[in-house]
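Quality-control log, excerpt.
Job 1 of 2 completed; input and output follow.
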Amino acid sequence: MSDAFDFSVPPFDRLMPEQRQRLAAALDLGVYARDGVILSRDEPADCLFVVRQGLVHERRGGEVVAVHGVHDSFDLQALFSDGQARSFVAAEDTLCDLVPRPILLELAHENPAFGAVIQQAFADRLSALANERSNRETAALTMARIRQAYLHPPVFVEAGASLRDAAAAMKRNQASSVLVRDGDPGKGGRVGILTGTDLRDLVVLEGRPVDSPVGPLARYELLTLDRDDLLFNALILMTKHSVRRLVITEQGAVVGLLEQTDLLAVLSNHSQVVALKVDRAATPEDLGRASQDIVGLIRTLHGTGVKVSFIADLVTELNRKIFRRLFELLAPPDLLANSCLIVMGSEGRGEQLLKTDQDNGLILRDGYECPTLSQVTGAFTRHLVDFGYPPCPGRIMVSNPDWTRPLALYKDSLFHWIHRPDEAAQMNLAIFYDAAAVAGDAALLAEAKGYLLGRLQDNQMFFTAFARPALAFDTPSGLFGGLFERRRSEAVDIKKAGIFPIVHGVRALALEKHMAETNTTERIWVLADQGVLDRGMAGELADAFTFLSTLRLKAGLDGSVSGTQTDNLVRTESLGKLDRDQFKDCLALVKKFKELLAYHFHLNH
């Protein structure tokens, strides 16, 4: 193995002879056929891959974001951080030397020259990923970098310092927080944070002595971003976790804190303001006003060219914040502790942009009873209607007792939907499969979904029936070609003709593989990683879904001032030539995907 491994390639050229021998002895060899998955998305990496022969594509969200050839290595990001969801696929027959994580860390520690290159390569990798993402975006909101915002200098105190010392350090440095060092971070130590609010609560509300050490009182699960990351990412992270500051790093070292007000000054949009209004809402009426602001946010982001996937991420977080806060305002504490509020359908998949019909439910802990349950659920539905979320025609809402039940009854329903499927049962199963937890105890939903996936069997008749609705609506093709000029003014229901066949077809394939993912694009790429979908087809499907969703958003914004998705119709005469050609290609692809589904699930028999 030592003869085969090329130690002349940086950074391995910096190793001493004895270190090279140890590395060579620890190496393994990976052999990958063309289109084989080397490292799937979210899979933890326990080694560094060094390409000896062949070519590797790095993919994120279905796009090839990097290509690794001979002597290139990956994936430092997976080795040393949580990173983002990426996968590595052999673009041709490939051989990789595998460097185990322990020997890599050992050599980096004992050989500073080697370790410095490894650390720099990791920092460069993070920066390159951030640059790559910004290059795909043209809107100013997504181009701004964290380094463009003012960063508050970090103020450190040791874990043994007292609360009084921390307060003095904040006052002396005019800071609203301190970072707490608990040991040497380079030797397994950790860094936490203590804010002014924490100090107030600890001393005033809890009565902690001011000479108490800060080490045991600090919070060590820091939310961090690289200095070259996007401010848009910081915005989403603050929104998701309801925090007002993030710790910013550069080459792994803390360089400052990004405060909410400074982020807003750069972005100059009101998305975080919406989140603040939600967090501070004292009444449902306060929430209603915050909900209306989301429509303006969507219009602004869409109007500046921000990709629909980014808008969906942000709107999903804001919508779920509103649902969570409304439930917290209405539900007594014991109901919150003994239930799980879920959203389903497009909201559960994280794909809702404008306000569509409510699809929500409540899972109760077995044995728990709430005397005011019907009043709480009825008020929840009524307030969402007031906020602009129309009631579900099929009454899939918490105000319907069929969707507010104990876990055991949900399991009974799942059993019925699987083993005695009629049309309604299949629809309910599809909707529930997309469910996401919003408030309360998420473990209740996890147990119900675990039961669902555990009850599925290799039953061809079941999956044939489940997949059949994907073919229920016609996908027109006569709008184009020779008949196009004559039928140019005809409108197409973009949801029925294009979006639903993709969503449900992908959902059926995902359910067949017992997949836990709920988002359609994520499902597409996991299906590709598992070999269910050809990678070319997966890429085309993901692109088509994005394009059709963008057209649907535009149609909804054009047809509604309230932000409610009332119009799924696309009028071909309103499209420019490029959009019209792409629309035509997307519909053709949907027809091809339907043919694949028909063959896979035996739908023509």
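Job 2 of 2 completed; input and output follow.
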Amino acid sequence: MKSRQRRRLPALWVFCALFVVVFFSPAARAEPIRLWHAQRGDEQKALEEIVARFEGERVELLALPTDGFKSKISAAVQFGEGPDLFLDAHNRLGDYDGRKVIAPVGDALDGSAFAGPTLAAVSLRGEPYGVPITQKSVALYVNTDLVKEIPADFESIAELAKALPAGVVPLAYNSQSTYYHAGFVHAFGGLMLTPDDAFAFVGPAAERSLDFVLGLRAKKVVAEDTDVAVVTNLFRSGKAALAIDGPWLSTSLAETRALHYRVVPLPPIRAAGKPPQPYLGVEAVMLTPRGAARPEVRALARLLASPEATKIRLERARTLPARIDVPLPPEDAFLAAFAEQAKNTVAMPSSLAMDAVWEPADRAIRKVLRGDALPESALSEAKRRFDDVRRPAPPPASRTPGLVVFGALLLLGAFSLVRRAKDPEFRKDVKRSLPAYAYVTHAVIAVGVLVVLPLVIGALTSLLGGSIQNLREVGWHNYVGLHNFVQILTARGGSLFATGSFYVVLLVTVLWTVLNVFFHVTIGVALALLLSRPMLRLRALYRVLLIIPWAVPSYVTALAWKGMFHRQFGAVTGLVHALNETFGTSLEPISWFASFSTAFAANVATNVWLGFPFMMVVTIGALTAVPADVLEAAKVDGASPWQRLWLVTLPMIRPSLLPAVTMGAVWTFNMFNVVFLVSGGEPDGTTEILVTEAYRWAFTRNAQYGYAAAYAVLIFLLLFGRTRISDWLAERREAREKEASAAASVKAAGGAA
């Protein structure tokens, strides 16, 4: 026995030694390099090929969706996780710097090989925070089948309309977007943002740029109500002779073999004396603080921006490089055009203030193009909104009142528990219920972590103030007490009934909820009554078809309905044209998002389509519980079909409908997807509801999370109060019914006696 143990001991020591070598050696402990990106298609393939040539540590690539890229990066890095380096546009540097997501790149950048504008674009406070790899801007796409000669200037584009086929617009671009309009502002000598972070989209240059675009629209040169998707479809289908867009448009055109096009720099504006100067975007490698401290991560960053990597991107993805020491393929006219255009651009500001420019500037441009305001007044209002968002952080408040209130609540709770603990019956009930508590402990923990804890954190966040622009001065934990609530309820010192104030948005939200719930219940109950008829054929098929709107994800339905409401190319406009051709009418297409009434109606129509199936399903289930003999007895007693419905059926299904109506009201009150995706708050934010307004304060207005959380708390209090009032009314109604039933029983008993 002892000999066997002696033979096993060496084997045990060998196993321990192998375990130590494998799991505790430097090679085993070395972490892989994590690289996150949002590239797709040929760009992603080029990136994978470049990374495969890296001879350092193992690299983990993770592709994230473009829409949520910034939020995922910020959240992961701030919690000590996430990538070591990532690829993103340089204009987000200010946001990342404010959140302390990025660090200076150090020796990862060799500045001698890059163009001057690209280096300036990735620098903050005179220090590089990114390694440029590509540069992008918009240029002019030309359909060579429709346009034989490139227009000499923008004013000459109007002459194209005479030679174009019917239904083809001369020029398509996203005229309602600040990004695409910035080039015209720069051409007239203006800016969107000054170097000291002041709002510059105001004054004569900005007004002249808007007047110029209005002139193009008046001459039918520019397609109206366009966005990126509409511009892509117009140019791809041959319905636009020219288009202003970036290199990303070519990806959508790759499969359209019948389309012949070329790209040229933007022509000059005769009235300005020079061509538009669009924004230049630089895609850069950015290092997180953890990654910047690792030499191998900086080595990978150097590789990603190296001449070898640049050549791979040129061959595989045809992206314009940021390096000046790598020549472009001489036969590639596409890259040559964007390289020429890049010489006449303005690097997009990477300041945090730029994030606050987009929303007010977009609204001003749309108001002017719709004819709702003159350029001067619209731009002045945009500046006021920008300045409102960029307010300095409120001063810290004393924590003493809050601590006193919190302590008083704790004492009150402790006193209540002590008083109840003295009650013998209460102690017996607790002991008797201990086995039951064991069965629900896991549920209590789950609800506490997933529901109660987020509510508490949100409520505490509402007591903090400031935005990401104030992060370095006051931090995220700037306690301001009830300052956010006071600002919301006083409309931030402005008119209580101005557009965007809490009371106006609340009124719109209540109107939105009431109308939707009314139509949900009315249509749902009517269809349920129809489908419950025993003699109706194909009932199962009808039920499946009518449930489809509820089964399809809401954001898909919202985007589809938004497309149908497009003034020029939507299905509703197509129906109007069909009616005009069939009946000889002269109906005009409706600009659905140009006025509050039509934009609100579009939102309501979309949400009614989404919501009535739920009420229909609930009503069908409730109708199965209505006794047939009760309806038969009412019919024998001479009740008409309407009386049987109103006096028998509806009262019996009401207990099942009330919870559904309450849930439907809560869902509709917070229906973010429809309002955000269909109208987007247009026109001028008048169709915003409380939840979309809270979203904008959190994610489009310099990340004012405390202010947005205060909105969320108010929403919770409103819904909680509404629910409690409904329960109180239901209890009172039930009590009155019991009293009436008891009185009737007493009366009947007295009559019998």
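Post-run check on job 2. Residues 1-9, 12-16, 18-29 have pLDDT under 50 and may be disordered.
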